[in-house]
Structure formats: C-alpha cells, structure tokens
Amino acid sequence: MKQLKRIAILGSTGSIGTQTLDVISHYPDRFKVDMLIAGSKVDTLIQQAVKWRPSMAIIADTSKYWKLKDALEPLGIATASGSEAIADAMERETYDCVVTATVGYSGLAPTLRAIKAGKDIALANKETLVVAGDIVTAALRRSSSRMLPVDSEHSAIHQCLVGENSADVRRLIITASGGPFRTLTKQQIAGVTSADALKHPNWSMGSKITIDSATMMNKAFEIIEARWLFDIPGDKITPVVHPQSIVHSMVEFVDGSVKAQLGVPDMRLPIRYALGDASRLATSDMPLTLERCSQLTFEAPDADRFPAIKLGHYALEKGGNTACVINAANEIAVAAFLRGHISFTDIYAIIEHTLGTINYIAEPSYEDYVATNEQSRAVADEAVGRIKLGGTC
Q1: CB–CB of 39/15 below 8 Å?
Q2: Burial 325-350 (b: 16+ CB within 10 A, else e)
Q3: Strands 169-176 and 237-241: what pairing?
C-alpha cells in the first residue's frame, strides 16, 4: 500500500486553506492532514481538527489557546499557540509537505524553518518571496526542499515550462483579471469603497488578496514572486489584463511560440497540481469547455490608474529591502481601507510615503528584513493616523 503524503496547512481556516482541505477530501488514499494552523478563527480550527484529526493544531492568537486546548487535547491532538510555536512546528517529523496558505509577512519565518527541515513547500503565500526572495532561494539551494507554486499564475507558468530549456524563454506573461475597477476612470476609482473592491468578477478569495487584486498590487507581487521562482530577470516578466480569467499565464519562447495554460477560475486546480508534485490528479469537477473559450481578450494594464504595477518593477530594479517596505506598507494600508479609515487611492500614497521614509539596504540580512518590516509598518500606521484626522501622508 502506498504511504500517504502527510500535509500541514499553514492558514487552514482561510480561503486557500479550506479549499486545500476540500481537495484532500477527494483523495483519502493519497493524503493525510497532519497539522492545522490558523490565525485567530479558533472555532473553525476546532471544527477542522475534530473532522480531520491531525497530530497537532496551532492558533497564532495566544488569547484563543485555552479554548483550543480544552476542545482538542481530550481527543489526543497536541495544541500550541503563538508565532514561535508555529515556526518550531515546521520542523516536526510528522509531516512531509506544508501548504503555506497564510496571508502576508507572517508566512516568511515558518517557511524558512520548513525549508531548513527539508520539507516540501506548496507556496500560496507570495509575500514569502516578495519580502525576502534572495534569502528564501538561497535556503532552498542548501536544502532538500522542493517548492511548487499554488498561485494560479505561477502554477500555469510552471506547467508551461515543463520539458523546456530555460535558455529558450524570452519572457513570462502573467495574466490579471483587472479586478472590479478595470473599466472605471481614475476619478471614479478615487471614490470606490471597500464593499465595491471586494466584489471580484471571477475569483472567490480572502478580503486582503481581493483588495490587492483591485489595486493590482497582487500582480506587482506576482511579478516579484516569478522573478525568484523561475530565476528570470524582472524585465522579462510582463503583466497583461485578461478579464475572462481563463488563460492563467503564458510563456513566450525565443522562436516566437507561446505556451499557455487554460482552466476554469478555480484555485483547487493549482492546489491539486502542487499537492500531487506536479502530477495530474483525476477529478470529477467540470472541465473548461471550448464554448467558454469563444472570446478571450487581452489588454495592457493601465499604470496611470493602477500604479502598483510600476511599484513591482521598481522593487525588482532597486532590489535590497525595497519589496519588503512595499509589502509592509501595503498590509497596513489595505487593513485601514477595509476598516473604512482611508480611501482606495490612499493605499498607493501610503506605500510611496513609506518607501520615501525607510532607509534603503542594498544587501539585507534576515534581521534587516525583520527590522524593515517593523519600521515600515510603524511609518505606514502613522500615515493612516494622519489621514484619519483629515491630513495627508
């Protein structure tokens, strides 16, 4: 009998985490849930643990720990809480692969610990490579870990590159839906609300990444992520707006040919591909039909209305701790926008203000990244406070 692949899910109660559990439920002869880790949704985590019976469940929010412990330890499930416990758990011998489904900077430390322990990584936390791609890729070279992308765009590129010579790649073409504001004018965009921004036309995602899609910051981050995942210069990575979200990304080769990966806009497809170690797991889900592909359109992103794209390329050109600053400021600004404290366009202003305030470090260490993240969050938070009081950055 084939040994089950033991899976840890970092961010099990979020959008990618819950979809990962759904995928696993269809392949009981291939996968076993070994560890579940959540941020603050302790009730959902308890429900998941009762159903899946992992060896361990961890809650990042230490104030929720006793509820978790009281519910699960009678079932023989080990429990813990806090960021240090999460990072330490990455080195447990009880699992083989971790799905990093958490959102934001918090995914960096545990991912590095998992790489050090030689665990395979199904990467859905793009910020890990955005913030510290140089350190992460260096750690991978020293480890037996393998990293497969879960983002639909990077999964598509990975699939298009199978069997190809990297020297034959002219450029990577990353598609973007354009989000809910693709057809709005600059003046209209200035007045949108968080409720407007959360209405994504194609994808069902968590609130933070949905806002990043609306600003196109997620595409800036995906450009940075692709640079590290596929070891290709940033000037060879091109975003293109594709409103139908059917072509998930493309690779153009030196002979002029282009390979594309197509599929329905469903994150379970790239999750299956990553969990299956880049193999095809059979599914009864409805496939893409040719009728649905009858009209596929593409257009260049408008950097004037969506300046995040320029920030992504700037971060790659500048290097150092630049992307770390952008990510930290963006996390603070998006959270403030979701609370109604700032406007949509203030998100860009806060990021640019923070970039102009934080000291540039050309060759940052891990400790430099930690400090840059903390300092950038503080600067961005102060800027939010000034805007709330009626001022500007």
Answers
A1: no
A2: bbbbbbbbbbbbbbeeebbbbbbbbb
A3: parallel
